[in-house]
Amino acid sequence: MYETKYHRASSADEASSLLGSAEDGKLIAGGQTLIPTMKQRLAAPSDLVDIGAIGAMNGIAVEGGQVTIGACTTHAQVATDAVLQSACPAICDLASTIGDPAVRHKGTIGGSIANNDPAADYPAAMIALSAQIHTNKRTIGSSYFFVGLFETALEEDEIITSVTFSAPARAAYAKYANPASRYAMAGVFVAKMSDGSAHVGITGAGSDGVFSHPGMEAALASNWSADAISGESVAAEDMLSDIHADAAYRANLVKVMAGRAVSAAGYSKAPNN
Fold first, then answer.
1. How far is 186 from 229, CA to CA, in rounded Å?
2. Which of 5, 56, 66, 232 has the highest count of CB atoms within 10 angstroms of its CB?
3. Could you write out the DSSP letters of every residue in the chain?
4. What are 147-171's pLDDT values in tens digits?
5. Residue 38 pLDDT exceeds 80
6. Is a pLDDT exceeding 60 seen at residue 85?
7. Is residue 22 over pLDDT 90?
8. CA 260-264-269 angle, 5° bins
9. What is the mean pLDDT of the segment spanning 235-261?
10. Strands ordered across the beta sheet of 60-63
11. What is the distance between the alpha carbons of residues 40 and 108, in angstroms, rounded to a whole number?
12. Which domains are delineated in the chain?
């Protein structure tokens, strides 16, 4: 790796200040993407600003049906938190499928969302749960946060501090994982909210990253069943095509995973089922 300066921030504001004063600063919490990228010399930041020890950005709380997850909360914490399991078991299940145990114990939800890898799992959940992304500067709705492949609405010195969302009435996540990386080749998170609205977040398949499916959402709002979405189409021209799966295959995978997720959510432990 190239030479870099290491800073350990004690608050989001301090981290933002350190980023602003660095020639080419990068945040690090779990480092599951940045460190391998640096080892391959594909990135050479002048400064690394470690936010992993900021206590205010770590932890999970559920109050009055509102879920808050700190940005530095690891995938393992999300997967195993008993309170979160009661409020939204689907996101716990999602976290349990990320990478391997080593990745889950280091990687963070904030890092995953900020990186916005087109095959990452959390963005699909954020879209389906209509999550709010809180930063040291503002709050951004998930529908505006994810802009494109590896691109978000975050400004250069803006730092995710937490995410919040209302506990769904029903929710589930189903993905077809690459057997080597465990990244989603197609992952679908479905959620039915207490007001009857339905939301669908799709990752791993879209050529422009995570996306929703209005047709499936309308169908599920009227009839929460896998049959309700069987007639909905997924445009192959909007899908990724690579050595793992071509666009037509991914379009089919999206429909299959959506059906599995809806069926799983019908038997979820979420409230108001």
1. 16
2. 232
3. ----EEEE-SSHHHHHHHHHHSSSEEEESS-TTHHHHHHTTS---SEEEE-TT-GGG--EEEETTEEEEETT-BHHHHHH-HHHHHH-HHHHHHHHTSS-HHHHHH-BHHHHHHHT-TT-SHHHHHHHTT-EEEESS-EEEHHHHEEETTEES--TT--EEEEEEEPPSEEEEEEEE-TTT--EEEEEEEEE-TTS-EEEEEESSBTTSSEE-HHHHHHHHH--SGGGGTT----GGGB--SSS--HHHHHHHHHHHHHHHHHHHTT---TT-
4. 999 999 999 889 999 999 999 999 9
5. yes
6. yes
7. no
8. 165
9. 96
10. 60-63, 66-70, 160-166, 132-135, 139-141
11. 21
12. 1-49 (3.30.43.10), 170-265 (3.30.390.50)
Token look-up 């990452």 returns 120
Tokens of 45: 């930041």
Q: What pLDDT shows up at residue 39?
A: 87
